[in-house]
Design goal:
The complex is a heterotrimer. Chain B is mostly helical. Chain B has four helices and no strands. Chain B is globular, with a radius of gyration of 12 Å. In chain C, helix 3 crosses helix 20, helix 7 runs antiparallel to helix 10 and helix 16 crosses helix 18. In chain C, a hairpin with a 2-residue loop joins strand 10 and strand 11. The chains are: A alpha/beta, B mainly alpha, C alpha/beta. Chains in contact: A-C, B-C. The interface between A and C is large, with 48 and 49 residues. The complex binds iron/sulfur cluster (SF4) (2 copies) and FE2/S2 (inorganic) cluster (FES).
């Protein structure tokens, strides 16, 4: 069986200038499919994913190739409208002849590669990583949620037994940080932020406003608008690219909360 | 009563004249003729002609008056086109 | 529990706010729109959006929406609610009465760029078959009519030569009289992306806008010219191209009329357009003009994007021609990454422009004075058409004040607020005996109306929009029309009441009629647009899936034409009494005259129109940021709050015109473009003084 990447069509012309590359990236985007990383238009490269021979343009990521091959690789910090970042380590795969478990979103395809995207070992590793994120996510906001983060939880088998077994009980969390509701249209709830930096990158790469940064380090790192201002007071132009990019409902449209936004968890009003 | 204020019509006509002014004479006149014929409501043209008849149009560019005369005399089929004024074979 | 409501339905549609025409998924929950999500496959936006399309959709359900037709005998009387048939019958009988009394040409119609292609087409059909005249105009009259004129004259097609994505392949991007990051945000983002990837940015604009200097995006050359000197400066750029022999002779010989090129070289090559002569007059360093010309001409791929800063001048059409000439001279047209492109204001201005909503042209920019063109429509509509051009909107108002124009049917426009010289427009409307307004709200114009027909927003109907890159995309009904009828149904109702029988089951039948009568649309249908997602015209047998880049092989007329673009200074001059030049613009969170965005939470960013003034000019008048100032021109005056700004040069002041109560169009002149009557919004001589007392200080 063999599949080809359907994305970069209609790219006649001379070989890739930087500009042309973006052009291909944008045109290769498809609704309903998240390729994980932006489509490219290099020479065809053939590799094997879970036994399926797959051809994608050079410059594509293993994550993209896996998606094209029909595999589902859980991911959090990657999406096909943004350049890969490689911070969450959820998209781990096995590549024959390589040590360890490389992140598929930051690994470019090579001809003849053999990739495995599933198996117990990988699932256990991924679950371990996602559990860390889950432990910091408000327990009351898991059941009934439909964000990308919630999908990832399901993919790694972490939704069973929740919320009773929520690993965060007693652990460290971000629920003391106030919700920023200054923008009339969307809010930012730091308690739900997994610091994937997709919003920051969307603001830079897609919108080009550079209003967001990740300030602080480690557990203390958080999304900041301009010089740690409210979203409304910041350079933010409210284009919505960050909201669109956020996988975890931390940045979200207010219109989806008709009765207003009220935190329910751990004594928060 | 004029259909539209004559001062306004004269301003418009002269502005059109100003644009075509750098063309050689025959094309300059044709440019204005083509514009008046294809862009102006006939009642505006009529009001403008009446004004010219009544006053001789002391404040109207010479080539605009020539063009106005061409529009009035126009019995041939209308030439409607965008783009630079064309050289007319015969000007009346 | 803050679990977000999960939408239960999603409809792909097109944003109506600006000429980018972003694709969106309108997501509903129990029949109400809960969010607009940018559509990743939308070819204009690729999943991106701006604050207007993304968030400011609540206007559609605003309590100000009128849901019932209303009539009244005079504008001093209260409105009387009636049903649709009564409203149609009343409006039709009034229009008939006026035509019987004052003549067939005493009434007219205006279409709206907020409406769909199908609705715009129907409006011009209404004028031609129901009013039996050509008094039909559209709102691009006051913004981009010079584009249609100037680009038709030079390149032969009055529309953008490229698709938006083309900018990503450009090496040089020249922005003239536009501020895409504010006016056309999603395209602005794409342009910035191109600049971050190495494209050089050149800007010609009186203001130091966000486009000129923002994080990781800075203009290589910015010509902050004096408002009103566009043609002078563009001729000077051409002068450098000609005298330094930077033009592409091979391209010009192959593709353009060589004799007209010679004539043009003679004009712009003249010493009076040398940067050294032009510089002082336009307030520029001659060397900057030379640098800009050299960078543009050397490309290898240079593209031009321009906006209202070019068109809204007494030489607006000439300015557009300057751009057309320049692209041809440098061979910067007919491939990816080059071209000349208008950035259009309202959602469907391109549609308004190409669907025959003109007093002198039918669809596809073909003259009503051409018997063959008329013939094809007469066959389709089974009625004889008026062979003479009708009145443009400004001339309708001129005629009204002269007492010779008596009735108007205005669809989705608010000329009292958006057109220049408000006093003149109000006087004109007041002198009319029947003003029919079809809109979402009781607009400023509706104050002068005798019939009010509640219109439908773009969320309430099916149809298509054509964006600034000629892309025709679907507009889909998400919710039921609040007033019961979609705009196209209203026009059909009125047409029938006027005695012209016509019937459509669905807007797709109107697009079919457009395809039958308009060469550029001949291959279009709802089915095809559904299938391909969107289609760029021309779409016909030669290009069944549409056309991304125009002029690749030849220009529509064959050879491209260089037009002679002599600089004629505007009559609007500063003097001792009015020493400052006012220029106007728009800002991101508000939409043109803001009838929709002012009814949304976008007010959080922009709750009034502010006057930007340089520090020196402010100091000389004892003004500080936050003060109220009275701005007076030769035509009127108004009050605004002052903001001292480094964006404007000394001698220049700037404001937006989004709010009715600030009445900025009180100030603007009655001067307009020589070819199209597009108003000169960009140049008004004014004076600014500190306001006497605190008369209604804004927020
Ligand atoms: S707000 Fe959302 S997108 Fe931004 S870093 Fe947090 S989780 Fe990621
Ligand atoms: S207003 Fe323009 S840029 Fe913004 S979402 Fe709508 S079409 Fe796109
Ligand atoms: S998705 Fe690959 S590291 Fe996050």
């Amino acid at each position: 069986m063999s599949t080809t990447n359907p994305a970069p069509a209609g790219t006649a012309g001379t070989a890739g200038t930087a500009g042309k590359q973006v052009w291909t990236e944008l045109r290769g985007l498809r609704e309903g499919v998240d390729l994980g990383t932006p489509p490219r238009d290099g020479e065809p490269v053939t590799l094997t994913i879970d036994g399926v021979e797959t051809t994608v343009p050079a410059g594509s990521s293993v994550l993209l190739a896996a998606t094209v091959a029909g595999a589902t690789v859980p991911k959090l910090c990657a999406t096909d409208t943004l350049e890969c970042f490689g911070s969450c380590r959820v998209c781990l795969v096995e590549i024959e002849g390589r040590r360890g478990y490389p992140a598929s979103c930051t690994t470019p395809v090579e001809s003849g590669m053999t990739v495995r995207t599933g198996g117990e070992r990988l699932t256990a590793l991924r679950r371990g990583v996602v559990e860390l994120y889950l432990s910091d996510y408000p327990a009351s906001d898991i059941e009934g949620g439909w964000s990308e983060f919630h999908t990832t939880l399901e993919q790694v088998g972490l939704t069973d037994g929740l919320p009773a077994d929520h690993p965060y009980r007693g652990g460290d969390h971000h629920q003391h940080l106030a919700v920023d509701e200054s923008n009339p249209y969307f809010l930012f709830d730091p308690a739900k932020c997994i610091v994937c930096s997709r919003c920051v990158r969307a603001c830079q790469e897609i919108q080009g406003t550079f209003a967001l940064t990740i300030s602080g380090r480690g557990f203390g790192s958080k999304v900041a608008a301009s010089q740690d201002e409210s979203f409304l007071a910041s350079e933010c132009v409210s284009c919505g690219a960050c909201v669109q990019a956020c996988p975890s409902d931390a940045l979200i449209e207010k219109s989806l909360f008709p009765g207003g936004y009220h935190r329910a968890d751990s004594g928060q009003a | 009563m004029s259909f539209i204020d004559t001062e306004r019509l004269v301003t418009m006509a002269n502005q059109i004249g100003d644009f075509f002014a750098p063309y050689p004479h025959a094309r300059r006149v044709e440019g204005v003729r083509n514009h008046l014929r294809n862009y102006w409501d006939p009642r505006m043209r009529e009001a403008f002609f009446e004004y010219l008849d009544a006053t001789g149009g002391p404040d109207v560019h010479e080539h605009v008056k020539e063009a106005a005369a061409l529009v009035r005399a126009d019995t041939a089929p209308v030439r409607a086109y965008a783009g630079p004024p064309k050289q007319l074979d015969a000007t009346s | 529990m803050p679990i977000p409501v999960k939408p239960d339905n999603s409809v792909v549609t097109t944003c109506a706010y600006c000429g980018v025409g972003c694709g969106f998924k309108a997501e509903t929950h129990e029949g109400r729109v809960v969010r607009m999500v940018p559509w990743k496959e939308g070819k204009a936006n690729h999943g991106h959006s701006c604050v207007k399309g993304r968030f400011a959709f609540d206007y559609y359900a605003h309590p100000d929406r009128i849901r019932t037709p209303m009539i009244r005998a005079s504008i001093d009387e209260p409105w009387q609610e009636v049903d649709w048939p009564t409203a149609f019958a009343h409006a039709a009988s009034e229009l008939h009465r006026l035509q019987d009394t004052y003549g067939r040409g005493s009434v007219g119609a205006v279409s709206s760029s907020r409406c769909t292609n199908e609705e715009i087409f129907l409006m011009q059909k209404f004028a031609r078959v129901a009013l039996r005249n050509n008094n039909i105009d559209n709102c691009s009259r006051i913004c981009h009519s010079p584009t249609q004129f100037g680009l038709s004259a030079t390149l032969g097609a009055g529309a953008a030569s490229q698709h938006f994505d083309s900018v990503l392949q450009a090496d040089v991007v020249l922005v003239v009289g536009a501020n895409p990051t504010e006016g056309h945000p999603v395209f602005g983002s794409m342009m910035k992306r191109a600049v971050r990837r190495g494209a050089k940015l050149l800007v010609i604009d009186p203001r130091r806008t966000e486009t000129v200097d923002s994080p990781h995006c800075r203009a290589e050359v910015h010509l902050a010219l004096r408002p009103g000197t566009n043609v002078l400066v563009l001729n000077s750029v051409a002068h450098v191209v000609v005298t330094e022999r930077l033009y592409d002779e091979e391209f010009v010989r192959a593709r353009c009329d060589w004799d007209d090129f010679q004539l043009w070289m003679g004009l712009v090559g003249d010493e009076r357009y040398s940067p050294e002569v032009v510089g002082p007059e336009a307030g520029l360093d001659p060397e900057d003009i030379r640098r800009l010309a050299r960078i543009y001409a050397s490309g290898p791929k240079s593209t031009i994007y321009y906006g209202l800063g070019v068109t809204e001048h007494s030489q607006g059409s000439t300015g557009v021609m300057c751009l057309g000439n320049l692209t041809m001279a440098c061979g910067m047209v007919g491939r990816e990454g080059v071209g000349v492109n208008p950035l259009r204001g309202q959602g469907n201005v391109q549609g308004g422009s190409c669907l025959g909503s003109w007093p002198h042209m039918l669809t596809g920019y073909r003259f009503v004075t051409d018997p063959e063109v008329r013939g094809s429509f007469e066959a389709e509509w089974r009625i004889e058409l008026d062979s003479e051009p009708g009145l443009r909107l400004p001339n309708m108002f001129d005629a009204a004040t002269a007492g010779t124009f008596k009735g108007i049917y205005i669809q989705g426009e608010d000329p009292v607020q958006s057109d220049p010289n408000r006093h003149h427009v109000e006087a004109a409307l007041r002198s009319m005996e029947c003003v029919i307004v079809q809109d979402l709200y009781l607009s400023e114009t509706a104050k002068f109306a005798h019939v009010f027909l509640p219109g439908s927003s773009s969320l309430e109907k099916d149809g298509t929009f054509t964006n600034a890159e000629r892309r025709v995309s679907m507009v889909r009904q998400v919710v039921e029309p609040l007033g019961g009828l979609a705009d196209w149904q209203i026009t059909v109702g009125l047409m029938n009441a006027m005695g012209y029988e016509c019937h459509y089951d669905h807007p797709s039948e109107i697009l079919d009629e457009i395809a039958r009568t308009s060469p550029a649309y001949s291959g279009m249908s709802f089915e095809k647009i559904e299938k391909l997602g969107s289609v760029q015209w021309p779409c016909n047998t030669d290009a069944p899936e549409g056309t991304e880049v125009l002029h690749t092989v030849q220009f529509p007329r064959g050879k491209g034409s260089f037009m002679l673009t002599q600089y004629v200074p505007t009559r609007e001059r500063t003097d001792d009494q009015y020493p400052l030049l006012l220029t106007t613009g728009r800002i991101l969170s508000q939409y043109n005259v803001g009838t929709q965005t002012r009814r949304t939470a976008n007010l959080a960013w922009h709750d009034e129109d502010v006057l930007e003034i340089s520090a020196g000019d402010a100091a000389a008048r004892g003004l500080a940021t936050g003060d109220r100032a009275r701005i007076s021109s030769r035509y009127g005056s108004t009050e605004l709050t002052v903001r001292i700004s480094e964006r404007v040069n000394p001698g220049i002041v700037y404001t937006t015109f989004h709010f009715a109560h600030t009445m900025v169009n009180n100030l603007t002149s009655n001067l307009d473009d020589w070819a199209t009557n597009c108003p000169e919004y960009k140049v008004t001589a004014v004076d600014v003084v500190k306001a006497a007392a605190h008369a209604g200080v804004g927020s």
